[in-house]
What we know:
Mean pLDDT: 94
Order of helices and strands: EHHHEEHHHEHEHEE
Number of strands: 7
Strand content: 15-25%
Bound molecules: coenzyme A
Amino acid sequence: MTSTVRPTTAVVERASVSDIPELITVWWDAFGSEHMQRIFPQTPDGRLWLERAFKQFLGPAPGPNELKTECLIVRSPDTGIPVAIAIYRIVPAGSDAAKQSWRARWPAVDDLPDFSDAAVNGFFSPMEKAHAHVLGDRGHVFLEVLGTIEAFQKRGYGTALVKWGTDLADQLRVECYLDASPAGKPLYEANGYAEQDVSAIIEKQSAASMLRPKKSQD
Ligand SMILES: CC(C)(COP(=O)(O)OP(=O)(O)OC[C@H]1O[C@@H](n2cnc3c(N)ncnc32)[C@H](O)[C@@H]1OP(=O)(O)O)[C@@H](O)C(=O)NCCC(=O)NCCS
């Protein structure tokens, strides 16, 4: 596959708890469509849920065979404010389905009236089904969230965050997986991901299941 390699100034770093307000700004900007706002409302409840989520992701490291979350950012070179985020899950081989489920990965919405648990479940469940169908219990690097503030898109920030994960997967010699939006798909294809056919188990997909094979032995 041919892809244009452009120089980028993007520096990928781990986010910290003090970045959480800006992480929410990036999330709300990148995922601000009407459809996404119906599921993840941009209201005080929506903010509280994201604060809880990011605190969970940036909290204490899990045990050695547990699913690990990495919350990464690229900052604006001018202001130092985060303008792009990626949330990765490093999934160990043999990890049980309950520990990988969206309910284990994300905070509950039960006490947040602006949310509908059915809507959130309707968002995550088909992707979860496709994901399990493609990977079973093989260890892998899962890129769960990628977003760049619109004003900072097309500068290579998304690519740098995608490459962080493919480099890690190559070191670990595991596959990479993600659920792609139409906006993200070309970027993922340029970085070695290919769409998987999950039509046997999912009737109407909202996102494309994409897998990147593990690096072959050199
Ligand atoms: C998808 C998304 C994360 C990409 O982020 P980004 O920071 O713009 O990514 P990049 O700049 O690395 O690449 C985007 C495009 O710009 C191009 N590009 C990269 N650097 C460039 C530069 N310096 N000049 C011009 N174009 C450039 C890339 O080649 C790529 O082109 P392609 O889409 O044809 O493959 C961003 O569009 C986004 O947040 N969208 C909304 C949320 C979303 O859909 N997220 C993905 C969920 S799976």
